[in-house]
Design a protein that fits this description.
The structure is a single chain. It contains 15 helices and no strands. The chain is mainly alpha-helical. The chain is globular and about 65 Å long. The chain starts with a helix and ends with a helix. The chain binds protoporphyrin IX containing FE and N'-Formylkynurenine. Heme-dependent dioxygenase that catalyzes the oxidative cleavage of the L-tryptophan (L-Trp) pyrrole ring and converts L-tryptophan to N-formyl-L-kynurenine. Catalyzes the oxidative cleavage of the indole moiety. Keywords: Dioxygenase, Heme, Iron, Metal-binding, Oxidoreductase, Tryptophan catabolism. Pathway: Amino-acid degradation; L-tryptophan degradation via kynurenine pathway; L-kynurenine from L-tryptophan: step 1/2. Its cofactor is heme.
């Protein structure tokens, strides 16, 4: 072994790769419901766990982007730049989430049916982090709080807090106001967006942020579209394990827009 190799990381507490990353817990967290074990259920669990880890990371980044936009001008870091930087990372993760559907689609519907009935009434519908992301991004819908069954107190509280706190959109509007633009109602915000779009030299950072928000919205829509096509490939028109109509429900969510004013702006340019 070379000298540099042995001397590095040998001091202090014996941190190892496995202990740092909590691999014993992580790798002992895949428990199949099927018995005898269905071959593809491990893939199904792994994919969902990877999604939830990325959702956690997205919540971390979007929260920080929002907070940067809400912090007072001149408070340390360049706020608009930092928010934009984090949103660029958010986009890359979101593209990964869309592409990852390909891995699950290597499962055939017959192989999914080997363990599907064991999953009810669980469903992706109950993903708290997914809903937190929607709320935090700007699409608050308190109706989901009632439609959720079996949430723990902690999960309920997390969702409630997301409904109360400012969204990424609120923070963007605050940044418009910070630049002296009028934001008293949607009409004024729309006019201010028009001003930004037509004077990109004066409002470069705000325009870049507006585009970053739109990109985030578009990528969320891509995920919903990709998910529903996969669902139709797997279960056709069957109803969902979560109790919804299945693909009919999922298709009804496709038109969701986080930032309708940014989309409407396109018609006014
Ligand atoms: C075989 C693969 C999958 C099938 C057949 C499937 C099916 C469905 C169905 C039918 C619903 C509607 C709710 C219900 O169950 O009644 C749903 C919702 C949902 N699924 Fe999946 N899903 C699959 C994979 C995934 C994966 C990998 C994720 C990643 C986390 C995911 C996340 C979600 C989310 C977040 C919702 C709620 C969507 C909303 O309310 O807009 N699903 N899924
Ligand atoms: N809702 C799916 C089952 C499913 O995909 C699922 C089940 C439990 C936990 C997460 C899931 N993923 C997305 O809905 C179905 O109806 O087949």
């Amino acid at each position: 072994m070379s000298e540099t190799f042995v001397s590095f990381g040998e001091q202090g507490a014996q941190l190892t790769y496995g202990s740092y990353l909590r691999l014993p817990q992580l790798l002992d967290s895949q428990h199949l419901e099927s018995d005898p074990p269905a071959h593809d259920e491990l893939l199904f669990i792994t994919i969902h766990q990877v999604y939830e880890l990325w959702f956690k990371q997205l919540l971390h980044e979007v929260t920080a982007a929002r907070d940067a936009l809400l912090s007072p001008a001149g408070a340390g870091r360049e706020r608009l730049w930092w928010a934009q930087h984090l949103l660029t990372r958010v986009h890359v993760i979101e593209r990964t989430l869309v592409q990852q559907v390909d891995v699950l689609e290597t499962m055939t519907p017959q192989d999914f049916l080997e363990f599907r009935q064991r999953l009810a009434p669980a469903s992706g519908f109950q993903s708290v982090q997914f809903r937190e992301l929607e709320f935090l991004s700007g699409a608050k819908d308190p109706g989901y709080l009632e439609r959720f069954r079996g949430l723990s107190d902690d999960e309920q509280q997390r969702l409630r807090r997301r409904l109360e706190e400012p969204t990424l959109w609120d923070a963007f509007v605050a940044a418009l106001a910070g630049a002296g633009l009028a934001v008293d109602d949607d009409e004024q915000v729309a006019r201010s967006l028009h001003t930004v779009a037509h004077d990109r030299d004066s409002h470069a950072a705000l325009w870049a942020l507006a585009e970053a928000l739109l990109q985030h919205d578009e990528l969320a829509a891509s995920w919903r579209a990709r998910h529903v096509v996969m669902v139709e490939r797997m279960i056709g028109a069957k109803s969902g394990t979560g109790g919804s109509s299945g693909s009919t429900y999922l298709r009804s969510r496709l038109p969701l827009q986080y930032y309708p004013l940014l989309w409407e702006l396109r018609s006014q340019l």
